[in-house]
Amino acid sequence: MIIGRNKEIDTLNSICDKPKSSFVSIYGRRRIGKTYLVDQFFKNHRKEAIFFDYTGAYQLSSDSQIKNFLNQINLWFKKEPLKEITSWGDAFNFLTNILEEESKTLQPNQKIVVFIDEIQWIDPSGKNEFLGSLGYFWNSYCEKKNNVILIICGSNASWINNKIFQDSQGPFNRRTTKTIAMFPFNLQETKEYLQKEKHFIVDDKTVMDTYMVFGGVAKYLSYLDNKKTIAQNIDELFFDINGELYGEYDIVFRSLFRERFKMHKSIMDLLISKRSGFNTSEIVVQTDFQMGSKLKNILVELEQCGFIKSIAKFNDERETRYIVSDPFCIFYHKWIEPYSKNKIAKFSKGHWSETQKTSSYISWAGFSFETICLINIDLYLKARSTNGVYKNHYYWQYIPKTSEETGAQIDFVVEYGQGLYDIVECKYYNKEYSLTGADVANIENKLEKFIEYGIKRNSKFELKLVYITSYGLKMNQFYNKLNISSTIQLTDLLKI
Fold first, then answer.
1. How far, in whole angstroms, is CA 150 from its chain's centroid?
2. Is 269 domain-assigned?
């Protein structure tokens, strides 16, 4: 079963229906489910296609990569070359001859699919002529046919971007028919995966608690054992030095960014140190990076992989900030990174269950919940069901100019057309949240400061106060003191 991925499946179906050949590029971070999507799609949705796949291997020589490629051809087509093949050009010529022979038996509209996975590992330096040979294979054979789908796939977004999309002198310049960027599951898809694939019987808050740790990374979720509690799974996967995901954070960055991974990690370390994130000027001040293309490229690569998110300040897009948006990274930096290997080895088996009872966890979960609501803005808009036309969402804060003033920070602002704005507050608790007098004063101050310093003068505006909560707001005397337009609960966000 393919959970979610409806957009990606529709795209692949439309490509298969085209009466011509297509060159498709799929990219996304490690373990996101790229290979699974392609394999399952052509096994279950397009069984009639002739399917050949080859996966690059990390740190193997060119000779070994070619040998693996030929072995895969033999596995699929039961054909071996009549003479020794030592170059990628000859390897693709051999594949071309086999595909041409296979095509004689094809039915009308039947496709030939060539799937090259983990392409960045095959020839990372570009010295072994793999890309040139693959480009020639596409230009001289695939593109001239009307029934070939060439799919390349990689987890190194920066390599894909530099070698495939932006290399104006390369063999793939303006050749790709379609690009599919894959990201983690959203909240709804994670709930569906836990229930339908892993057969957990859990409530929506447990889904959210799980998402705060694993994000929506399919492979991470696949490790969960439904015979154990979620907390027991987390203990075994993360807080055991032999656990499947104990060292995953470093592996992710090494595999994505190779020899440059320390630069990317240093930016992540900085951004996660402050909930509201940093703008580029602040990043330069806090690190050894200079303002320029190097820093810009790292930020772009981190955002392409879904690790960070750029969010503009309301009415001042020059003040764009970068925040860490990946729940797994937020979890790792708070609960794994600060501890030595020896310290983690001494944790009890019930470590995570005990951690969830602490005030530190409650504070962290509130921050993580706010971030998750922000990155699942589509689910928010669906639950909100506003008649306004969505334009964008922003952060907003006011830093007081004098000691007598009070500052203000809004969780996030949603802008619609015609001067309509949602002022969003996020509250994550184990029961209905009871507003207090301090909450009322805090909200009133935020609205006052936003009108005075956020809204442009002489602008038309209408503000709607919206709460996103675990189980809703308790109706008490303080609730009635605020004009709350809507309360969105987890059940609204997670409705499948």
1. 24
2. yes
Half-sphere exposure of 280 (CA within 13 A, CB side): 17
Read out DSSP for 99-151? Answer: HHHHHTTPPTT--EEEEEESGGGTSTTS-SSHHHHHHHHIIIIITTSSSEEEE
Judgement on whether residues 455 and 325 belong to the same structural domain of the protein: no
Q: What is the DSSP string of 87-104?
A: SHHHHHHHHHHHHHHHHT
3-state SS assignment for residue 484: strand
Q: Which of 181, 201, 229 is the last residue of a domain?
A: 181
- Give the DSSP per-residue string, 49-112: SEEEEEE--TT--HHHHHHHHHHHHHHHH----SS---SHHHHHHHHHHHHHHHHTTPPTT--E
Query: Distance between CA 273 and CA 291 in Å, rounded?
Result: 20
Please state, in angstroms and rounded to a whole number, the distance separating the CA atoms of residues 422 and 486.
10
Hey, is 208 helix, strand or coil? helix
Q: Do residues 152 and 25 make contact, with C-beta atoms less than 8 angstroms apart?
A: yes
Name the token pair of 148: 């070939």
Work out how many domains the chain is built from and give that number: 4
Domain boundary among 303, 331, 359: 331
Question: Helix or strand or coil: residue 193?
Answer: helix
Q: Do 457 and 343 fall into the same domain? A: no
Helix (H) or strand (E) holding 453: none
In this structure, are 154 and 89 located in the same domain?
A: yes
The residue-averaged pLDDT of 271-285 equals 92
pTM here is 0.89
| Sheet strands (E) in 362-419 | 390-398, 408-416
CATH number at residue 305: 1.10.10.10
CATH number of the domain enclosing 425: 3.40.1350
Q: Which two tokens stand for residue 273?
A: 């140190």
Q: What is the pLDDT of residue 215?
A: 94
2-15: pLDDT as tens digits = 888 999 999 999 99
Q: In this structure, are 106 and 211 located in the same domain?
A: no
Residue spans of beta strands (DSSP E) within 263-389 = 308-313, 316-324
Residue 292 has pLDDT above 60, yes or no: yes
Neighbours of 195 (CB within 10 A): 15
Same domain flag for 386 and 440 = yes
Across the strands, what pairs with 425?
Answer: 467
8 Å CB contact between 428 and 391: no
End-to-end CA distance of the chain: 16
Q: Which domain holds residue 14?
A: 6-181
Give the sheet arrangement for strand 50-55, strand by strand: 50-55, 112-117, 148-154, 22-27, 178-181
Mean pLDDT of 131-138: 91
152 and 28 in contact (C-beta within 8 Å)?
Answer: no
CA distance 245 to 248: 5
Tell me: do 67 and 143 sit in the same domain: yes
